Amino acid sequence: MRLARFLLIAAIIALLWPMRTEPVLAQAPVGIQILGTVTTPGQESLGLDVYFVAVDSAGKPIKRPDINSASIQVIGGSQAPATVGDPNSDINIVMLMDTSGSMTNVIDSVREAALSSLESMPPNARVSVVSFNERATTMTDFTNDLQGVADAIGRVRVEQAGTCLYDSVWNAIDQLAQVTQRPQDRRAIILFTDGRDQRSAASNDPCSIHTYRDMVNKALSSPTTPLHTIGLCSGSCGNLNVDEMQEMAQITGGFSALGDETNLSTMFREIMEGLNSQQAARANVYARQGENQGVLTLLSRDGVEVSSAPFVFVSDRDYTAPPPAPDVRVPGLTYDPEANTYRLALAIANSQQVGQLVLSLEETDGGKTVFSEELNPQGRETLETDFSAASLTPGENYTVFIRAVDPDGFMIERPDTGGFNDNDRTILTSKEFTHEPPVVNGVPFGIRSVNPDFTTKSLMVTLDLPETLPSRLIYQGFILDADTGSEIQTIPQALLESRQVAVSMAPVIADLEAPKELRLALTLETTGDEPQQTSQEFDFKIVPPKKPSIFVRAADALQQNPIFVVLIIAFVALFFGFRYMQSRRVASQMAEIRRPPVNKTSTIQPVMPQQVPGGGTPRPRLRLRILRTTGGEAGREMIVESFPFVIGRKEGNLVLAEDTRMSRKHASIVARNGQLVIEDLKSTNHTYVNGRQLQPGESALLTGVTTIRFGPDTEIQVEPYPV
Length: 723
Prior knowledge:
Blueprint: H1 2-16, E1 31-41, E2 46-55, E3 69-74, E4 79-85, E5 91-98, H2 107-117, E6 125-132, E7 136-143, H3 146-154, H4 165-179, E8 186-193, H5 212-220, E9 227-232, H6 242-252, E10 256-259, H7 264-276, E11 279-285, E12 290-299, E13 305-307, E14 311-315, E15 327-336, E16 341-349, E17 356-363, E18 369-375, E19 382-388, E20 397-405, E21 429-434, E22 446-453, E23 458-464, E24 473-481, E25 487-495, E26 500-504, H8 507-510, E27 516-526, E28 533-542, H9 550-560, H10 562-591, E29 622-628, E30 637-640, E31 645-648, E32 654-655, E33 667-672, E34 675-680, E35 687-689, E36 692-694, E37 699-701, E38 706-710, E39 714-720
Parallel strand pairs: 5-6, 5-8, 8-9, 9-10, 31-32
Antiparallel strand pairs: 1-2, 2-11, 3-4, 3-12, 4-11, 6-7, 12-13, 12-14, 15-16, 16-19, 17-18, 17-20, 20-21, 22-23, 23-26, 24-25, 24-27, 27-28, 29-30, 29-39, 31-33, 33-34, 34-37, 35-36, 35-38, 38-39
């Protein structure tokens, strides 16, 4: 009976064991998608908010990424630590739903998926529902009443009409610009469609007045409007312009989802996850007045670092960064057994910001202070100090802490970059060691310094040695990478002849192009029947010299090879001699007088143009070529000499009656002060000069070869024609 009960309990435990709830691990980001920036002017620094989404290796948004710390680097300036959190700002969203004729069989499924997505709508969202085909219809204005939004989605109906996609997005951007008043408020467009911008499925003629590039450029204008695209398709997605759907999302900071009718709910959910994954990195930066570039960097808890592409932000004025905080390192701590003292070597960057260094020695485990000392660096970048080991216990662990006060007597705090000693930022650096006084069997020594000599490609090692030494000492050792501990160079055995040792640099050290932290591990060994060893380590930094310029290297090469100087002088002399003889030969040929042949061809002198009274310039002329238009006018050329020259559909000097999208009088080319300008005559579908849209009534100067577009279908090219 007991056995049966035991087996029953064991079976229940075995069944329940897999049901343990495992903790959900945060995911480290692989990429960063920048959505936009907001700046806040301050007295000493510029407040910068960077809105972003962390993405995984598949480009999908991560809702709660593993972020340990963050920073923003102003390109050409300083780096600032950043805090990361939820945006906590309003987000205005336009749900732009395709209701063209091709949606007839799927509109019910689309409505159902859109309604389901409202459950995942971001907090602080205000939504407007807009249906579109050949025209856009606002079903509901911006509201945070999700029931009202659901009712609007339920009223969406299909019409047998074309798909004016680009114009609908253009109008939605304008709609967002009108309602988004505060700079910190976010904006987004969720575009759903099953087709391309075209009049009908049987025709490839565009439906929109605006082009794809017009629409994207408008979305990228400050501030950027992210375009999130959902494309309904099957098979090869031939009904969609897939490249455009994906590109417009990528370059505006949006997300794109493509799939068939069975994936509608999943596609809407992916877009909502992207909206809910938005975060804000906030920092105080020092920037120049005007346009600046920055890079956002995130560091995960397991040390994975990822940086964004450069983004642009605008500063209202110049902000001057304060002097950099001092940086203190401990390159060496050596024990002198004869004096029973430790020598601490310090390296101080930006030492002019330090009034006093405060050194304290504490027990690592108990926290008891053994002693403290104040040091005055006096602007020096290196400093050494000795302290007694008489009160230290062999085998005990100790830590040296270095703090500092500024010239005004205030404690200096280390920049908040995360990691080391987060609880006490007044600790600039520390060094932990175990007090292990050696049993003196060998020769006690210390390493005072290691200095590189790139001329001889040697490391000059200076040693602290006792006054009396054995007659023969052998040294050997290694040079290690201070960061990884890996061996870089072996120092072979050699006889110690003085207190300074010259160690030949290995090529990997001699050819360094950037500063590198290294560690020297050196051993001294006595000779005789019972050789004994003592060892020491010393951290040092290699700073390679700047490479000489090409001119210096050329001068050195010529100095070492004087034969090249002789050859160069001979070549120059030959060159100028040849040129001199050639000029003499040409002069002698010019001196020969030949009678010119009789010209029996009569020449009709051209009629000279009448001079403009007062010495003015002649009237300008223009060559005009029709590049494309509806009808048969494409390729036509003409010379325009009379201005103003009006172009239109019904009236003017150039009438293109078959282009129904041109205005009656669309634009005019006018001569002003000897220069030609194109003026938009308040046309309906706009005038574009080299791709730039003119405002109604705006003029633009015509210089060189210029391309002018009237609405979507007619384009001409003009260029000055010689008088």
